Amino acid sequence: MPSEKNYSSYFLIISILFVSSLLLSNVITGKLILIAGWVLPGAVILFPLTYILGDVLTEVYGFQKTRLVIWLGFICNLLMAGIFTLVMAIPSPGFFESESAFAIVLGMTPRIVFASLVAYLTGEFCNSVLLSRLKILTAGRHLWLRTIGSSLAGEGLDTVIFITLAFAGTMPTGVLGQMMLFQYLFKIAYETAVTPLTYWVVNYLKRREGHDNYDYGVIYNPFQLD
């Protein structure tokens, strides 16, 4: 089995896809889309992928390595928001006519950034810890139960926290509830639909890496990175 400090090419690829999906989701979340009569933020087409990739990381490499990737995603997200804010604060030349367009797309209010970061950390860590524990409890069986079950909890917390912190007080409570319900159902349906692909990726990585990680004796402390 590779040592805990050994990061393979496959691990790095999945980690990069995870962080990239997170950052892109936060860029496109302001675009509203219409799916089957439901008005949803554009991020719903990509953000569930972060939970799928998080499932893959935890299942194959364990909670300790996944914890590092979750924090890397947090840091990159914070850096992106900071750079967007800085660039928008710097005056543009008079002939630049796209200032308002950039502000609409990249302008990230402190409230939205805060809501996004809190929801992300809470949801992702809940998903990873629960998946890890379920793997031990099920002796590695029923991957579909572990991935979908952990996402039911993680995605639920993420959705409720983000929408509450980001939009409470700006719209009726009933509308907030509808947003939460529609986004949550869409995310879970998304992950359920790609479960066969998740199975294939997990099994492929386990064969290539030559091991199947179990988090026996792991302390689930999100702040312990060694």
Structure description:
The chain is mainly α and 226 residues long. It has one domain (9-89, 99-209). The chain contains eight helices and two strands, in the order H-E-E-H-H-H-H-H-H-H. It has helices spanning 9-28, 48-61, 63-89, 99-106, 110-137, 143-167, 173-193, 195-209, and strands at 32-35, 38-41. The chain has a two-stranded antiparallel ribbon with strand order 1-2. The longest helix is centred in the middle third of the chain and has 28 residues, at 110-137.
Number of helical segments with 4 or more residues: 8
Poorly predicted runs are: none
For the largest sheet, list the strands in their spatial order.
1-2
Strand content: under 5%
How many domains comprise the coordinates? 1
Straight-line distance between termini: 18 Å
The residue-averaged pLDDT reads 88
Order of SSEs, N→C? Answer: HEEHHHHHHH
Major sheet size, sense and barrel closure = 2 strands, antiparallel
The radius of gyration computed from the alpha-carbon positions, rounded to a whole number of angstroms, is 19 Å
Given the helix and strand composition, which structural class is it? mainly alpha
Give the oligomer, counting copies of the same chain as homo and different chains as hetero: single chain
Approximate shape: globular
